[in-house]
Amino acid sequence: MSVSVFVSEEVVKAEIAEIEDSDSESDLDSLSNLDVTGKREADVYGVKAYSAKCEQMGIIPVSYFIDKAHLQVVSLKHHGIRSKGAAALAECLRINAEITDLDLSDNFIGEEGGSFLADALITNSTVEKLNLAGNKLCRVGGIAIADMIETNHIISTLNLSGNGLTDAVAATLGTILASSSSVKWLDISRNEFTDKSGETIANMFQHNTDLLYVNISWNKFGSKASGLIADSLAHNAFLEELDFSWNGVGDEGGKHWAEGFPSMRMKRLNLSHTRLGE
Questions:
Q1: 239 touches 267 (CB < 8 A)
Q2: Phi and psi of 176, rounded to 5°?
Q3: DSSP letter string over 235-273?
Q4: Contacts for 32-38: CB closer than 8 Å, 24+ residues apart
Q5: Model-level pTM?
Q6: 103: nearest Cα among 82, 81, 80, 76
Q7: What is the CA radius of gyration of the chain?
Q8: Which tens digit of pLDDT belongs to each residue from 93-111?
């Protein structure tokens, strides 16, 4: 007994089209992989330079970074990079033109490591977001990063929180940001800024026309610095959000905030835990 199976022409065409699409996708994936491989061989991503520096300094390369160096967003937080690892990463950043968002938070990079990265980022033209929170940059590393910002006009988001930054760093960073900068989002919270930095920070707020968000909470500002900063913000028409919480505003500083508030253009202001009313 014979059985005849009839398949419509439309079904055949659909199956052929599906096979061709599958082959096309496979070809595209292969081409993409070849492209990445080829660029790795040419060290377009700076991986060879990174690995060579690691070998020179006697440290083990971070394989995760090697695998991700061709991506735009790279997170290396909590990888224990330290200063030598930062020196190796700096060699990569001199070459890499793919990474736009780099998170190096909590890596104990230190003052020397911060200087290595700052030197490389002076000429880097792709990193727009940089997170260096919790790296013990302190005075030397902090000033190096601040100086880099004066030359680098690409970085728009900068996180320097929890780095033991001193008044000397505030003086440099504040002076640079007072003139002009590409930085629009800035986090310098949880550092060691005191009333000595009040005038510089106030001057930064009064003259900067780029900053939209600033977090300066958990520092050591007292009523004097608080008053100067409040007065300056009455003349700033660009800042949209400020977190000034966990500083020592007090009643004396609070008067300046109350008087200047009607002229402030900010959409959000955080003055919580600042000893107001105590």
A1: no
A2: -65, -45
A3: T-SS--EEE--SS--HHHHHHHHHHHGGG---SEEE-TT
A4: 36/70
A5: 0.86
A6: 76
A7: 26
A8: 999 999 999 999 999 999 9
What Cα–Cα distance (Å) separates residue 213 from each residue in 46, 54, 251? 32, 37, 25
Beta bridge partners of 206: none
Helix (H) or strand (E) holding 92: helix 82-93
135-171 pLDDT, tens per residue? 999 999 999 999 999 999 999 999 999 999 999 999 9
**Dihedral over Cα of 102, 103, 105, 108: its sign:** negative
According to DSSP, residue 118 is labeled: H
Q: What are the residues whose beta carbons fall under 8 Å from the beta carbon of 200, sequence distance 6 or more?
A: 170, 171, 174, 175, 178
Q: How confident is the model at residue 12 (pLDDT cuts 50, 70, 90)?
A: very low
Residue with tokens 């079904």: 11
pLDDT at 18: 57
Summarised one tens digit per residue, pLDDT across range 38-95 is: 556 779 899 999 999 999 999 999 999 999 999 999 999 999 999 999 999 999 999 9
Residue pair 108/80 in contact by the 8 Å Cβ criterion: yes
Distance between CA 113 and CA 111 in Å, rounded? Answer: 6
